């Protein structure tokens, strides 16, 4: 009986660990921008959320912002109307590879910065 109980407990733990989400948080900052990103991934699917915050001067002069994520997992490029905080997310993606850092390029009003975003 003990052997059967141990085996069932082992199977339960193995199943729970196989289905668990891995959550990784990344942050990075440049002279004018701060980027934070949270990635959730398991063996079947992944998702991420990000926040890009403007730290610079004269926000009223900015109309549009272009973003480009350069990562093993996130290959996203976009242009959005300027806001001091820009948020985005994606769901239902392929499982993510583990990575320690990636780059985010931000272009606005003829300026450009690349930000190293790390765990």
| Overall pLDDT confidence | 88
| CATH architectural arrangement | Sandwich
Percentage of residues in helical conformation? 10-25%
Largest sheet: 4 strands, antiparallel
Number of structural domains: 1
CATH T-level fold name? Immunoglobulin-like
Q: How far from one another are the termini?
A: 46 Å
Strand content: over 45%
Describe this structure in words.
By secondary structure, the chain is an alpha+beta fold. The protein has a single domain, classed as Immunoglobulin-like. 15% of the residues lie in helices and 55% in strands. The strands form 2 sheets. The chain has a 4-stranded antiparallel beta sheet, with no helix packed on it. The protein has a 4-stranded antiparallel beta sheet with strand order 5-4-7-8, with no helix packed on it.
Give a brief description.
It comes from Paenibacillus amylolyticus. By secondary structure, the chain is an alpha+beta fold. 15% of the residues lie in helices and 55% in strands.
Keywords:
single chain; alpha+beta; 15% helix; 119 residues; four-stranded antiparallel β-sheet
Task: Please describe the topology of this protein.
Layout: H1 2-19, E1 22-29, E2 33-41, E3 46-54, E4 64-70, E5 75-81, E6 85-93, E7 101-108, E8 111-118
Antiparallel strand pairs: 1-2, 2-3, 3-6, 4-5, 4-7, 7-8
Signal peptide: 1-18
Organism: Paenibacillus amylolyticus
Protein name: Lipoprotein
